[in-house]
Write a structure and sequence with these properties.
The structure is a homotrimer. Chain A is an all-alpha fold. Chain A has one domain: Phosphate transport system protein phou homolog 2, domain 2 (Methane Monooxygenase Hydroxylase, Chain G, domain 1), CATH 1.20.58. Chain A is 83% helix and 0% strand. Chain A is built from seven helices and no strands. The radius of gyration of chain A is 18 Å and the shape is elongated. The mean pLDDT of chain A is 90.
Chain lengths: 208, 208, 208
């Protein structure tokens, strides 16, 4: 079977490798977030690692977009590829946003259950990376998309419980403001994995 | 005059019926929200009804997107139809988000004026359903879009007043956090009706 | 060299002038925001000025979209132009949202540093206007885009510091809720300038 991205994109352009690299950085950042939340001994250093991955992806995305804009493909395919890159990038932007808030807000102690939410993000980004890796061969792509959807529902459920607990247990409104935002930003990162899965699904179905 | 959606979409595919069903569920959810806010005797049961409509629309949207991706239409038309379905769905997602927060946040008493905001959402979703119903015949579609725009401005005005009152009357910051979010989520649902109206307007004008 | 927008759009349609007018209003609103924050003697009157510019842009955008939908250009180009107009408009919507909150929330005194954030918005909207003005001739367009990206990073850094200071210095949670939102809305206005820069860059590269 001919490669899926190759049908859309000239092989020599190296688009597939750029996409895999982008998704690898997102997965690495999610893993760093779990380490950060589990130890919380040097949050500034952990946040710095995630920030560096975010900068790396900014550069990669810019490179990819430029390559894309200069490549002769149909506008329609271009839009899909553009959206795919942009939404993969969003996942890392939100992971970075959560990490930097943990530092800026001078969080002292991680609330119970928040690391679980980050673990779901690790699972979702691992599936996202897997989907991007097999997109070229169109090999069981949709199975990864279905799993991402399941994980997003799981993150949604966890987020709702975390915020219900926050309102029940925490009496300091300032702590509520800070933690509500951190939890919601982490959950939105998983939402964005689902957006990536939807684009991947669209690309797959259109090129079936 | 030839049907508008039929020009874009093969008639046998049944797209028009799916769109109407989608919009009917959104309208039903907005009505359930008003009932929930007016009585507030069994919020969990009311939220459950809205959640069921949300699940039904998830299934419908997925069906519609699959059908769309497998149908031979121009990419451009496909994008419009895709956006229309996705934005109709967003209105119900936000209605559900408001309903579930009323339960999760253990709200005890509905603040005055909030039901008025939900009534504007009912009006806007009724117009949205009407617009979708006549889109096929392109019969006075734009009149419904104009009315949705008017209702969105009305919701915006109500929302601003509700939040101003909230800050003036409520002294408990935790109540402010909870209610500010519920009010804003409801208002965003009406914003999304306006996004639907904009897509409908675009489809209508392009196919005039 | 042939004009860039003229390649996309019929010259007689007057699209270029509409875009320039749209961007001029955005720039004027950002300047009015700085005046509002620096004096804060009659916030309601200042907010009214910004609101009037926002209404003017709503009318302009509607006119532009109608013209666009009735013009024979490729769907792909149409999408870009549509997105450009819509994102320029978003910058002013957010400026207006910040201004109206300063009034509705009965803010009494402007926090130190907030006017600096608005000054970065003035710089970013000035560059945005410059980019729109030279887009037709494709004359050093990308230099303005790069400068907007730099300003967005600057706004991001200022916003983070302002919110860190807010949590450290302000003890009243209600003040934290109000100011956190006003600062974030202002920062999002600058984010939107970056979105405009990205569309401008895409249009430029595709038509190089």
């Amino acid at each position: 079977m001919p490669g899926l991205l190759s049908k859309l994109l000239p092989r020599e352009a190296g688009f597939h490798d750029l996409f895999v690299e982008l998704a690898e950085n997102v997965y690495a950042a999610a893993q760093a977030m779990v380490v950060m939340l589990e130890n919380f001994s040097n949050p500034a250093a952990d946040a710095e690692k995630i920030k560096n991955l975010e900068h790396a992806n900014d550069t990669l995305t810019h490179k990819l977009m430029n390559k894309l804009n200069r490549t002769f493909i149909t506008p329609f395919d271009r839009e899909d590829i553009h959206e795919l890159a942009s939404e993969i990038d969003d996942v890392l932007d939100l992971t970075d946003a959560a990490a930097s808030r943990l530092v800026t807000y001078h969080v002292e102690k991680i609330r119970p259950g928040v690391a679980d939410l980050a673990r779901v993000l690790v699972d979702a980004t691992r599936e996202m990376l897997a989907a991007v890796r097999v997109l070229e061969q169109n090999d069981h792509v949709l199975e990864h998309c279905i799993e991402i959807n399941r994980l997003e529902n799981e993150a949604d459920r966890l987020c709702r419980n975390l915020i219900a607990n926050l309102f029940e247990q925490e009496k300091d409104p300032v702590q509520i403001i800070k933690w509500k935002e951190i939890i919601e930003v982490l959950e939105t990162a998983t939402d964005k994995c689902e957006d990536v899965a939807n684009v991947v699904e669209t690309i797959t179905l259109k090129n079936a």
